[in-house]
Amino acid sequence: MSDEFDAILTAPSASTPAATPAQPLPAASANEALVTHAHIAVEAPGFGQFLDNWTLYRDPILCAVLSGAGLSALGVFVVLRRAVFVTATLSQAAGLGVALAFFAEIHYGLNVPPVAGALATSALFTWLAGARSAPRLSRETAVGFAFVAASASAVLVGDCISQEAHDIAAILFGTAVLVRPLDLALVAAGTSLSFAALFLFARALTFTGFDPEGARVQGLPVRRLEGMFWALFALEVSVATRALGSLPVFAFAVLPAAAGLVLANELRFALAFAVLFGTLSAALGYLGAFLFALPVGASQAAVAALFLLLASFCSRFRAR
Fold first, then answer.
1. CATH number of the domain where residue 223 is located
2. pTM of this structure
């Protein structure tokens, strides 16, 4: 079993009675105990053990499923805008914000909520990625600059926080197994807000994404709609990164959306497929990490990539 899950299952419980002095065992009993202990140590975790500890894993799975649903739905519009690299930039920026929050508390005594730090840096790098670049520089160059700056800064700040090294590693690389109730509540609120906004503005966001000039001619407030969308996306990325880490957030925001767009010709079906793949990637990735002793974030990202590969194969097979 991976160290992540093993740390949870072996953690002492508050209800566990105090240990009593060990009594000497007969030789035969001692040998039997050693054999039994060795068997348990090498036995692979099974689905029954996962169900037995369901109360421990319920909240993180629910948090991942909600994040997968919200990010994959928003990701459809990100992929349509051909702004996939912005997703990676925002996830790294959110990790930087969390690292800065730890840094401010440890070195300056400032109590900055990590989610607030993640949201602030995500908003800043959203502006940097979307700001008008120099005449000879493309928008992709600005996004690349923002990504490198966020990634390098997150690593450098994290290296300065030796006291919270484990927490920073979890934020940057997605090794979280358990989530705090506050993180779950924030992810649920962000996902609910995302679905509400998409229900109200999906057609307008599609129009502004495909043909912004035509949308302006039709009288749509393109700048405000785009600002609202990216602000909402930054919010969802921030709260999800704080709970899950950068890697699964990037995977949920891109891969299920791409799979949905590959399979469906209509936006509503693409959204449905994307949300389905996002939620399944979160749940199956977590289960696979438990059963095969794998890192959670990487497992969830791998399942999302597998769905995209299957969708691409089905699309080519259907085209024939």
1. 1.10.3470.10
2. 0.80
